[in-house]
Amino acid sequence: MELSRIVDRLDEELGTADYADLDASANGLQVGPDEGEIERVAVAVDGVRETFERAIEADADLLVVHHGLSWGGFDRVTGRTYDRIAPLIENDLALYVSHLPLDGHQELGNAAGVADLLDLEDRSPFGELGPEYVGQRGRTADPYAADEVRERLEATLDTGGQPIQHLDFGPERIEDVAIVTGSGTDWLDDAVAADADALVTGEGKGKAYHEAQEAGIHVFLAGHYATETFGVRSLQELVGEWGLETTFLDVPTGL
Question: What residue stretch is flagged as signal peptide (predicted)?
Answer without folding.
Answer: none
